Every structure is written in C-alpha cells, then in structure tokens.
Amino acid sequence: MTSPASKYLSKLQDKRVLVLGRTSGIGFCVAEAALEHGAYVVVSSSTQAKIDKTMSRLRASYSDRVSKLKGFTCDLAQPQNLESNVKSLLMAATENDTRKLDHIVSTAGDSIHAPKVTELTIESIQKLGNVRFFAPLVLAKYAPLFMTPGPRSSITLTSGTIARKPFKDRTVLAAWGSGIEGTVRGLAVDLAPIRVNIVSPGAILTEIWNGVLKEHLEGVLEGFRKETLTGELGTPEDVAEAYLHSMKDGFMTGTVLDVDGGRILT
Known about the structure:
Layout: E1 16-20, H1 26-36, E2 40-45, H2 48-61, E3 69-73, H3 82-93, E4 103-106, H4 122-142, E5 154-158, H5 171-190, E6 195-201, H6 214-226, H7 236-248, E7 256-259
Parallel strand pairs: 1-2, 1-4, 2-3, 4-5, 5-6, 6-7
Helix pairs in contact: 1-7, 3-4, 4-5
C-alpha cells in the first residue's frame, strides 16, 4: 500500500514511459522528471547521437536509476517510412511487446520557419505537417496495441500557442497546430479509456532558438517576454510539469494544457 507521504509522488513509480521527440529541452526535462518520479523511461529521437547525449546526461544525474533508462532511434520526418519506424520503436520500447507502456509523450517538432502564404507549395505544406501532424496520428494508430489498457494510461502530444494566436507569416504552423489540437479531442474519444491530452507551450528557452542570429536573438526574446503576463519566458522544467500532470491525472482527457505565461490573454 502506498504511504500517505508519497501518495502523489509515487503515481509514476515503475510505470513505463516513452518520450519521443527533441531529446534536449522539453523532451529531456519530461524524461528527467519521469525518471525522478521512479518511472522506467524510454527516450527516442531521430539520431543515435542525440540519444547517446541524452542518455549520458540522464545517467550522470541519476546514476542509481540507469537500469530504468533505455533509448531507441525513430525518424518521424520521412512519410514513406513512418509507419514501419513507429512500429519498430513501439516493439523496442516494450521489449517485443512483453512490457506494455503506461504513458507516451511526444514533444516532437521540427523547424519553426515556414514559407509565407504567397510562397507556399503543396510540398512545403505537407513537409511541415510530417512531424507535427501525421506522425502523432500514426503513433495513435499503433500505440494502444502496446499500452496497458485503461484510464491510468495516457498519450500526451504537443502543439503551441500559435494554434490559437498566430504570428504573421506562420499560417501553415498555425494550421497544423490547430489540426493536432482538434485531433486530440477525436483521439480521446476513439482511444478511450486510454486518455489523450496535449500540451501547448508558449515561448520556452530551448535550443530551438539557436537558429536565430545571435545579434537578433535578445530582441526576439524580449518581444516574446512582452507578450506574456508574467514578463518572463518559460523554461523546459516549467513545461515538464504539464506533461507530468497529464500522465498522473487519471480523470483528464481531451484537454489542452496551456503553459504560456498568459500569452493567449495578451
């Protein structure tokens, strides 16, 4: 029986959690938080080098939990291989379907740069949806086969405030973001009683900003600060709490969790 002193902290104890996507930033902090809560954690990214770096950092911080950590590659950006890649990952994460997953978190994303509406092509539209939209749908197609059935299991996806408060010249990103938020409501119905939620971060200090020229970066970040009610940018550690909540709250499904410093309200 769970001790009253650890009733909430132990909700993820010995649960099996798969974290897909960027294995630094938000994805890293979700994996770190799950490991800290006693879960078995499987991390996945597009390259072995990224996984090795993440595994090394986690092992250094949680040397007593190395046996609870594994990592496997999965490229979500190639539509022709997407289904086979996802199935292979799920087989690996469950040790050939012998150890069911309890929670799946996808923080996967790619470039925040997008063509203007006047420059769009069908190819560019579809490319920006591969990781953001098509991959989560394919994941949802196969994931329940590898998960413990019931409302204590969950899938948590990721969108962004751009879905409901677009930036200029980011229409395609707003479209895919809105689409995946609607998809989550549908999946919550279709995959029930497994729960499906989505986290919508605002501007978070991660490596995604490395693509901005150094001389422009502080001005860009200050602009985002001014768009919040808190006057600050978020941290990956802040956002990780929302994914923990999605995993631990067995009565929440079909929900968008906003972690944006109040940007939607400004």
